[in-house]
C-alpha cells in the first residue's frame, strides 16, 4: 500500500504507476493496438492484411515513412538496402575480438552501437536524407551482423551478402551457406521468415521501443538508441521469451516433466508459462493466431515433423481451459509459436531473440524518428516514491560499530 502523502513533492502530486501500466509516455502515429479486441494495425493497416499480402521490406517502409511504397519507391528502398549490406572491414575485425561463447545478443548490440564509429557523419541527423541513409544502414547491416555472430560462434567462415537475393533469402544464405555450397531455402521457408519478421516489426510502446524513445529523448544518435533497444529486448519477459518457450517444450519432450505437472508448477508460481500472457492483449494476440497457422502450414508443406508443435498445441489447449489462466486472461502471445518456425529454419535457440531484433528494427527506427522529428519531446525522466532512510549524521570510520 502506498501512503498518498508520500507522493506529494515540492511541485505537487506525482503518479505512482509501477511498470507504467497506465501511463501514456508519448503520442504516436505508428501502431495501433486494442488489447481487448485483439486488434493490431501498422499505420492503419490491419496486421492480418499485411501478413497476407506484404513483404517485410514494404512493411518496414510503411512503418518508417507512414505509407506503403509505390513500385518505384519500393525498388529504390531495396536498392538502398543492397548498397548498405556489406560491413566495413574494420567492423569485421570486431567479431574476432569476441569469444566464440559470446551471446549473439551481446554481439549484436555492441556492433550496432559500433556502427556509429564508422559513420560519424550520421551521429547528427541534419536532414531526412541523412536519416534515410542511417536507417537503411541499420536495417540492412543488422542481418549481416546477426548472421556473422552465429558464424563466429560456430567457427565457420563469414559469408558475404549476395546483392541478387531478397532480404530474407540473403539472411538465410549468410547463416547457412558454406563456401562452394549456396544454401537454397524453399519458398515456404522464405515465406515463414518474412511473416516472422513482419509480425515482429512493431508493437507500440513496449519495453524495448520505450527504451529507444527514452534514449532518443536525450538527443542520442540512432545507432546508440536502437542498440539500447536490443539490450532491453534481451530479457526473458520480453524478446527472450521465444527461447524460453522452446526450452520449456524441449524439457517436456525429453521427459523432464509432463504438461499437467508443468501447469501445476506455473499455478504454484514456481515458474511462468513462457509465451503466455501480455500486458495489453487480454483476449488474444492476433500475431499468435497468424503464427500458429503459419507454423502448421510450414511444417506440412516441408514435410518436417516437429513434436514440439504437438506439445505446444496441447499445452495451449490445456492452459486455455484452466481456471487459473482464464481468470487472469492469459493467452498465447507471439512468442509461443514463433520458435517452432525458427527451428524449422535451422535457427539455433540462442539466436531466437536476435531474430526478433532484426524484425523489430523498422519499428524502433520509426519511433526514434517520430520522437526526433517531434522536436518538442521532453527528456524522459520519471519520478519516484522515495522509501529510504530519513536524514542521518555521518559517522567517521573509526567510530562505526
Ligand atoms: N505464466 C503464469 N502466470 C502468469 C503469466 C505467465 N506467463 N503471465 C502473467 N501471469 C500471472 C501473474 O503471475 C499474475 O498473477 P497474480 O495476479 O496471481 O499475481 C497475473 O497473471 C498478472 O500478471 P502480471 O505479471 O501482472 O502481468 P504483466 O502485464 O505485468 O506481464 C508479461 C506481462 C511480462 C508478458 C507476463 O505475462 C509474462 O511474464 N509472460 C511470460 C513471458 C513472455 O511470454 N513474455 C513475452 C511477452 S510478448 C513480447 O514481449 C513480444
From TrEMBL:
Pathway the protein acts in? Carbohydrate metabolism; tricarboxylic acid cycle; isocitrate from oxaloacetate: step 1/2
Q: Which reaction equations make up its catalytic activity?
A: oxaloacetate + acetyl-CoA + H2O = citrate + CoA + H(+)
User: Active site located where?
Assistant: 278, 335
Question: A Gene Ontology molecular-function term?
Answer: citrate synthase activity
Q: An example of a Gene Ontology BP annotation on this entry? A: tricarboxylic acid cycle
Membrane-spanning residues where?
A: none
Query: Which InterPro entries does the protein's record reference?
Result: Citrate_synth-like_lrg_a-sub, Citrate_synth-like_sm_a-sub, Citrate_synthase, Citrate_synthase_AS, Citrate_synthase_bac-typ, Citrate_synthase_sf, Citrate_synthase_typ-I
Highest taxon, organism lineage: Bacteria
* GO CC entries: cytoplasm
Q: Which UniProt keywords apply?
A: Acyltransferase, Transferase, Tricarboxylic acid cycle
Question: Which family would the database say this protein is a member of?
Answer: Belongs to the citrate synthase family.
Classification via PANTHER family: CITRATE SYNTHASE
Output this protein's name: Citrate synthase
Higher taxonomy: Bacteria, Pseudomonadati, Thermodesulfobacteriota, Desulfovibrionia, Desulfovibrionales
**What gene does the UniProt entry assign to this protein?**
gltA2
